Predict the structure.
Amino acid sequence: MLAGALSPETLDALVKDAQANGGSLGVQELLNQMTKAVLERALETEMTHHLGYEKGDPAGAGTGNSRNGRSAKTVSTVHGPVELDVPRDRNGAFEPAIVPKRSRRLGSIDEAILSLYSRGMTTRDIEAHLKEIYGIDASRELISNITDVVTDEITLWQNRPVDEVYPIVYVDGIRIKVKDKGVVTTKTAYLALGVDVDGRKHALGCWIQDVEAAKFWHKVLTDLRNRGLRDILIACCDGLTGLPDAIRAVFPDTVVQTCVVHVIRNAMRFVSYGDRKKVAAGMRAIYTAPTLEAAEIAFKDFDKQFGTQYPAAVEVWRHAWADFTPFLDYPPELRRVVYTTNLIENINFQLRKLTKNRGHFDSDAAAMKLLYLGLRNITSHRGGPSGTGTWGWKQALNTLVVLFPGRIPLS
């Protein structure tokens, strides 16, 4: 809009003069001066609206209030610190909106800090960045206070209503270090991701916990039920302790499907590098079997071939068998979307990149703040707060409608 108000010739002259007086620094100073001029003009306009008459207008006589000089104030902007002359009124009732009282930063600075923080930069890094790029002195305490504004937003997000039905829900977690009672301990941030009937992905919630237990998972699932969730068709997870039992207790009709990729990875931990190819081929015969009966035969062959040399790998499959077998009843188009929790692991991978810069978090709240901002930033690239990308969902949904008749609301 400013470019439209000034002719190209005027802008060229301003830039040329600024470059002659200091190169890029001169241009920066020009931006500061223009920002100052625009803000002070806006403040004068607000004062006129507040008093009800223009400066010097005789109509203001006897109104009981009038202009009372100016006060100096420095505010931080994306163009650097700007010194303003803020108009005052005699009654002290003037409350400017564009540069509020006691405010030392314009909103864009707060947004820049939140954006940098959500991308994993530490408060120390942000402090240095603001000083280097904008010439702004912002303490780490100030940066922390600015990022704390999302606390209420997190509470609302954690308690917001959810859909009544999610055909598939994925659950997985990442490990983080958090100071608890003066001691740094390892905890896990668990994320639940629901896929709705249109194929959109929704982060249903994030919970930080130091131990896995049925009681914890029962509370998580009860919270989701209290927020409106009534049915989950398939819950895909990595054999988290207590989770399958808690799902069956709160949502008794839900099919619990263990992540096949995690079973393979867990089994491979007990296999020497030189034997991995042939062991992987043996496992492939199990999870690609067309029927349960064929999978049982493949598992017996796998046990016979590798049971003596790698009993722990065989035991991984035996332990996961009950929660693996539902997968075998599904046609290929549905197997593709439930055989792994990779959908949620992709998000967790991005969250790990945010948390790796920190040795530890000072509290669960500090960890949740970064994770929430990270989730908000990640999902914003998917078309909205819940994400709108679909992934060949139509075929899978048609199969789910047949396998779970009457449980999917269709428009």
Notes: Strands lie at 67-77, 80-89, 165-180, 183-195, 201-209, 231-237, 255-258.
